[in-house]
Amino acid sequence: MLKLFSYWRSSCSHRVRIGLNLKGLEYEYKAVNLVKGEQFSPDFLKINPIGYVPALVDGDFVVSDSFAILMYLEEKYPQPPLLPSDLKRKAINYQAANIVSSSIQPLQNLAVVKYIEEKAGADERDIWAKTHIGKGFAALEKLLKDYAGKYATGDEVFLADLYLAPQLYAAVNRFNLDMTQFPLLLRLHEAYSKLPAFQNAAPEKQPDAPSS
Ligand SMILES: N[C@@H](CCC(=O)N[C@@H](CS)C(=O)NCC(=O)O)C(=O)O
């Protein structure tokens, strides 16, 4: 069986959990407690030398980084597809995914916000996170307005949705971002909350989520 090294609140793990659920793949959940620093344990560093979740183990093969994992799953288990066949819509999916993974998530990653909090305090940490999430969301709101249907790039769920849903979840639940400026993204956030593959991937549903 596939094994996923994950942390309940990690948005990068969250994307992969959605992908696994959409493809109907069962997996064993291996919790890595990022707050306790388990990502830096020698055993975990053998799995992913950079010390980040998620990591997927498929038999004797190990792959880390949510994008690489999702593309591996896409080729090995093509149905249902995570990418549209239309070339331009596919490119927009890559663009939206990369706005989240390169221009938002790294700036609000645990190590970064912890560092800012230590150097400048909790208020600065929150301003920092909200500024960078807001900048990315403003771009996504503009980008997706010409492509969105029920979901980010049409009426089917694709890669962009797997990146957006966890980032929206974090913005709303963790960083209390005011979403009224992003009506399209807020509508997508609500649409995702109705889909079982997304519901079951939610942080609070994971075995390592705190009980209260
Ligand atoms: N590009 C990587 C980023 C992985 C990443 O940043 N993971 C975060 C959780 S979302 C992490 O493990 N952080 C631990 C730390 O900052 O020490 C991916 O998409 O998987």
From TrEMBL:
One Pfam match: GST_C_3
Keyword Transmembrane helix part of the UniProt annotation: no
BP-aspect Gene Ontology terms: glutathione metabolic process; L-phenylalanine catabolic process; toxin catabolic process
Transmembrane region(s): none
All residue ranges annotated as the GST N-terminal domain in the record: 1-81
Domain of life according to the entry: Eukaryota
Annotated GO MF terms: glutathione transferase activity; maleylacetoacetate isomerase activity
Enzyme Commission number, as recorded: 2.5.1.18
Keywords of the record: Transferase
Record InterPro entries: Glutathione-S-Trfase_C-like, Glutathione-S-Trfase_C_sf, Glutathione_S-Trfase, Glutathione_S-Trfase_N, GST_C, GST_Zeta, GST_Zeta_C, GST_Zeta_N
Keyword Ubl conjugation found: no
Family statement: Belongs to the GST superfamily. Zeta family.
NCBIfam families tied to this protein: maiA
Protein name: glutathione transferase
Organism of this sequence: Citrus sinensis (Sweet orange)
